[in-house]
Each structure stands twice: as structure tokens, then as C-alpha cells.
Amino acid sequence: MDWYRIVLETIDMRSFSNLWFWIALAVVWSTASHWVLGVPFDMVMRARRHGGQAERDLEDMVRINVNRLLFITEQAGVWGVALVSALLSMLAVSGFGYAVELAQALFLLAFPMSLVGLMSIGTAERIRGTGLTGEPLRRKLAAHRFWVQVIGLISILVTALWGMAQNMSFAVL
How distant, in Å, are the alpha carbons of 1, 56, 65, 129, 133 from that of 70? Predict the structure, then answer.
């Protein structure tokens, strides 16, 4: 039992003071900003620089991912919204109503990602609806990435401020 106590004292199991949570937060947002509608952003840059086959590959990849995303949305959209809404509500009430720190951390991670998901569906609908290709498609993907990064920046700032407040209030107790 002594070993278990030493491990728990060494590795803080609270979310906002745990290094793994901050690593996960950084990985989630760097991944979200790199993969734009399921397409790695380096493909967009390569298509801009080289054109030709790289441009066709980008357009094919975007078409496949846009059709896939919109198919899933059309087939399970209502159930997806209901499930995500229930999960976010549960996390918000548990976290902020009952002061469960893990639920707060998960909410601060999941809520902004749900906004990115909604934004991705809107961008996919615009791409398919207007049939974007070439430079307009690359601009749309770059604009989408920019707004994902803005949401990520705000999310990281709010999470850091909230986590700092939680850690400071825990230190006072």
C-alpha cells in the first residue's frame, strides 16, 4: 500500500495539474488544425506549389472526405446531435454543477471540438454545393483551417485560465 500512496502523491491524478491532460490538449488542437476536413494541410500546400497531379490528388481527397462527412451527417445527423448534446450536457452539469474536475476538463476539450465539427459540416456543404476546385478550394480549406486555429487558441486560453484558477483554489485548501 505504501507504493500505491507514493505513486499517487508523485503523479497528481487531478486533471488540470496533470501533464498528460495538457499534452492531450496540445495534440488534439495540433491534429485538428493539421487535418482540414480529413485532408492533411501539407497536401494543400503541395497542390499550391506544384499543381498538376498534386492538385488532382487534393481535389479527389477533398471530394471523398466531403462526401463521406455529408453522408454520415445525412444518415445519422439527428442521432449524432442528440448524443453529442447529451454528452456535453452531462459533462457540463457534472463538471460545473457538481465540481467534478475530470468532467470540466473533458467539457473544455469536447465543446470546442463540437464547434469545429459543426464548422466542418458547413464547409463540406459549401464545397460540395459550389463544386469548388483549384485555387478557390485551397482558399476555402485555408480559411477553414484559420478558424479552427482561432477556436483552438480561444479554447486553450480558456482552459488554461480555468485550470490555473482550479489549481490555485486547490492549493488554498
Answer: 53, 21, 8, 11, 18
